[in-house]
Write a structure and sequence with these properties.
There is one protein chain. The protein has a six-stranded antiparallel beta sheet with strand order 3-2-4-9-6-7. It has a six-stranded parallel beta sheet with strand order 26-25-24-23-22-29. β35 and β36 form a beta hairpin. It has 15 helices and 47 strands. α6 packs parallel to α7, α8 runs parallel beside α10 and α14 runs parallel beside α15. The longest helix is centred in the C-terminal third of the chain and has 24 residues. With about 850 residues, it is α+β, with helices and mostly antiparallel strands.
Length: about 850
């Protein structure tokens, strides 16, 4: 019956949408007319496309678009139902996501009232449609009146960030404004709207690929929805990463439970990035009737085990907090993730790929999906699977005292079940976490902590009962953690659980070199603010706005004190003054504040990774910077700005998380150093130490062999003596370089602190462009060499260079010398120059390169008498 195939399974996206606001305020009367709309989409996105609102990310325009979120909007489309579709036993309207308070009507009949952005809906519409044209409307009410009505009924609750009524509304909480984002209260069908005609369909498939001593086993359980007939079959096929078939099964779809167990004798294990490969098996499940396909599903699976171990830490109180994959403890260096935009329809799979590739290129191993955002698009998790990025997934509760009345709990349960079912097959998913900072805010209002009546903390019903029950039932293969931070006597406990270290920046505003004093067993948040690139600043400001104290620059910094008063610029100024003299112009201000953020991240990752220790002594097992990315152009804690351009802090993190990293700390004239390794085997290496004056005169040079212990921290000794016995002059700089097989794999430069007390001479930078390459040279010691190439992000940046050292980087063909400037501490902006190609010049040879990053070619004229030479 070839003609019947389309009728047995047809999914039709609904198109032809229009949008209007009948009660739009008078100045925005055009919005009362029907406008072409995009689905999936948001009201803001369509109004921006039609030119009815200014870009909310530019200047102060955020203030001018608030009316949009305070207005009711209606989407409408008509669609044709054919007689053949009406003959189908089942005809469903599938709503992937409605943001947020929505009434769904079909041909005038109300089918659904929805108030949870994260719950998909499938509605049987056969009784409500007819052959021919049918009209579907989605009416969205503004969320603030809805939330405030619930707040009036149940009581106001404490929050950090945003309107307090947000805790009653299951909408992305960051839309209400956060300390890094604007208030953009979106509305609309933010996911697909489709029509599904079918006889019987695959309703749910759970197929964990578990690893044991005799190989791996795929245990599949499937449920169907619809009208199965005798002879219907479910075909299960598992293919290896190279595509060949590993195992198959055929199940009777009409008889009893649909279960299969497939054995994989020699599984290819999936590993986090840097610990091994990421092979993915492909599972095909098809539902068939008489040779005709009724439904099909394809998933990619990884064979791996994941544990969260909390073991004793040798000679210390408390317990560790260590992720263990395939039996191997992992130092989970990485970052926190926020949504890439507030208008979510604009985030493409390519954008997810770009941003996550940047995380992977920075040697990150884990990404935490923060609880004030969304359960991300499938493309996010698919990419993490491919790149080997472990995912810590928060449920979507953040910085608030959430309610727990019956209707709210029912909505949360539906949301959690939908999220877990959708995401549980991903190999990258390593943890489900109940919330972000809700235990912390509960402590702040006296609702949590030692001796406090648990009845004062309503949401414990969510974090300690509802959510763990959902995870245990639907995804028991992955651990659950009740909240971040939590686990100790209090949320700031340094000896158990995870910790958010905000004594630097918030709290006492401790110096960033003191990160080690505020460690935790797993530091899941910490950070320091810095502006975006000049390229991004130019896009949201006018020339007159480009100074640190302008209203626009301060508007694009949402940090605030506990009373909600803006204080980001003030805190940046304090940390800037700790290190540098006052900047002379705006370009120097942007450079210097970003350099301070990079210094802070160097301090943090060295302090935390340096406490990875060894087996049985995992004092700190992870460090996730707040935050990886931005959702709009802003001065924030992000290490990659909204234009996708890495800040200097990104490169500092990339170096400190290298698989083999030499790390050090300077305390006045005293130097201590160690090697941190995530390699699976001991690694012989050679350490080079050069001590110079700030003018470049060599004072000391040493070189000695060392063996870096596998997956551990190895303290460095100098000729059998503690390296801490080496003293540095107050105005000197030390360069530590780690060589493997004659190639530099890592370096650490230790400059005087605070640098503002010292006269750092101009390093006399030169930058030349020829034949698609950029060559940098420094005549003197150069700190924080930054290459500004506009919209282009060089592979390597924020460099500390020895005197006479040159660095060569590839450039895209469209990047010219005219678009490149470089600067370092002690120098102004240096314009790159074109250099004609010399056909008789011998090729340069690399003398150091990151262990896993794309190669950076470097040659160095070492200080006189140094042991450095060409390999």
């Amino acid at each position: 019956m070839p003609h019947a195939i389309p009728l047995l399974t047809t999914r039709t996206p609904l198109t032809g949408w229009t949008l209007r606001a009948p009660d739009a305020p008078a100045p925005h009367g055009r919005a009362r007319d029907w406008l072409e709309a995009t689905v999936p989409g948001t009201v803001h996105g369509d109004l921006l496309r039609h030119g009815l609102i200014p870009d909310p990310y530019t200047g102060l325009n955020e203030l001018d678009v608030q009316w949009v979120g305070q207005t009711a909007w209606t989407y409408r489309t008509t669609f044709t139902v054919t007689p053949e579709q009406l003959e189908s036993p089942h005809l469903d309207l599938c709503l992937g996501g409605l943001d947020t308070v929505c009434t769904v009507s079909l041909n005038g009949a109300v089918l659904l009232r929805s108030d949870n952005m994260f719950v998909p809906h499938r509605l049987d519409i056969r009784p409500h449609v007819h052959a021919g044209e049918n009209t579907l409307t989605l009416h969205f009410e503004p969320v603030l009146p809805h939330g405030r009505a619930l707040e009036a009924r149940h009581g106001q609750r404490a929050v950090w960030n945003g309107d307090p009524s947000r805790v009653y509304v299951r909408k992305a909480q960051y839309h209400y404004g956060w300390d890094w984002g604007p208030v953009i209260l979106t509305a609309g069908p933010w996911k697909d709207v489709t029509l599904h005609a079918y006889h019987v369909r695959l309703d749910d498939v759970h197929a964990p690929l578990t690893v044991g001593t005799d190989g791996a086993r795929l245990d599949l359980t499937a449920t169907l929805s619809g009208t199965a007939a005798p002879g219907d079959t479910v075909h299960v096929t598992l293919c290896a990463p190279d595509g060949h078939e590993v195992a198959r099964a055929v199940l009777d779809a009409h008889a009893g439970p649909l279960q299969a167990s497939l054995h994989v004798p020699d599984p290819e294990l999936w590993w986090p990035r840097g610990y091994g490969a990421q092979p993915l098996y492909t599972l095909h499940v098809t539902l068939e009737r008489g040779g005709v396909m009724l439904d099909t599903l394809t998933r990619r699976l990884g064979a791996r085990t994941v544990e969260l171990r909390q073991d004793p830490v040798a000679d210390e109180p408390g317990t560790s907090f260590t992720f263990v994959v395939n039996g191997v403890p992992i130092f989970a260096g990485g970052a926190n993730w926020i949504p890439e935009d507030l208008l979510l329809e604009r985030v493409t799979p390519e954008q997810y790929r770009d941003r996550l590739q940047q995380a992977a290129d920075a040697n990150m191993v884990m990404i935490r999906v923060w609880g004030g955002g969304i359960y991300e698009h499938d493309a996010f998790y698919d990419t993490c699977d491919e790149l080997g990025l472990l995912v810590w997934q928060d449920f979507l509760f953040a910085c608030g005292m959430y309610p727990a009345h019956p209707d709210f709990l029912a909505s949360v349960q539906a949301e959690a079940q939908a999220a877990v079912r959708r995401l549980r097959h991903h190999a990258s998913l390593a943890l489900w976490c109940g919330n972000n900072e809700d235990y912390q805010i509960a402590e702040s209002v006296g609702a949590s902590g030692p001796g406090v009546d648990p009845g004062r903390f309503d949401a414990l019903a969510i974090y300690e009962r509802l959510l763990p029950d959902v995870v245990q039932t639907l995804h028991p293969e992955v651990p659950y953690w009740p909240g971040s931070p939590s686990g100790g006597v209090a949320s700031h406990d340094q000896t158990a659980g995870d910790r958010h270290t905000w004594e630097i920046w918030h709290g006492v505003m401790a110096p960033h070199r003191d990160y080690g004093r505020y460690e935790g067993r797993f530091v899941s948040e910490f950070g320091l603010q810095a502006p975006p690139s000049l390229h991004v600043i130019d896009r949201f400001t006018r020339p007159e706005d480009r100074h640190a104290g302008s209203r626009v620059m301060e508007h694009h910094n949402k940090a605030a004190d506990p009373q909600g008063r803006p204080d980001g610029a003030r805190r940046i100024a304090a940390y800037l003054s700790d290190t540098f003299a006052p900047p002379r112009d705006f370009g120097e201000y942007v450079y210097a504040t970003r350099a301070v953020q990079a210094d802070a991240m160097t301090s943090a990752y060295r302090a935390f990774r340096g406490r990875w220790g060894r087996a049985g002594a995992r004092a700190v097992s992870g460090a996730l910077v707040w935050q990886l990315n931005d959702c709009w152009p802003v001065t924030s804690w992000a290490v990659i700005d909204s234009g996708g351009l890495p800040k200097p802090a990104y490169h500092a993190i990339r170096r400190e998380l290298a698989p083999l990293a030499v790390q050090a700390r300077r305390d006045g004239e005293r130097l201590t150093a160690w090697i941190a390794s995530s390699l699976s085997a001991d690694q012989p290496a050679q350490v080079h130490l050069d001590v110079l004056t700030l003018g470049g005169e060599r004072l000391q040079t040493h070189a000695w062999p060392v063996t870096a212990a596998a997956n551990a921290v190895t303290p460095l000794d100098l000729a059998g003596l503690d390296l801490g016995d080496v003293t540095l002059p107050g105005a000197g700089v030390a360069f530590l370089r780690l060589h493997v097989d004659g190639r530099e794999r890592s370096r650490a430069a230790l400059w005087p602190e605070p640098l503002k007390y010292h006269d750092l001479p101009d390093p006399r930078l030169t930058a030349t462009v020829t034949a698609g390459t950029l060559t940098l040279r420094a005549d003197g010691p150069a700190r924080g060499v930054w290459i500004d190439a506009g919209a282009h992000a060089p592979r390597d940046n924020h460099l500390d260079l020895l005197p006479g050292e040159t660095v060569t980087l590839p450039l895209p063909a469209d990047v010219t010398a005219a678009s490149i400037t470089v600067r370092a501490v002690g120098s102004g902006a240096v314009q790159a120059q074109d250099l004609p190609v010399r056909h008789d010049a011998p090729p340069q040879r690399p003398t150091h390169a990151p262990l896993t990053a794309p190669p950076v070619l470097v040659t160095a004229a070492a200080p006189t008498g140094s042991d450095q030479g060409a390999p």
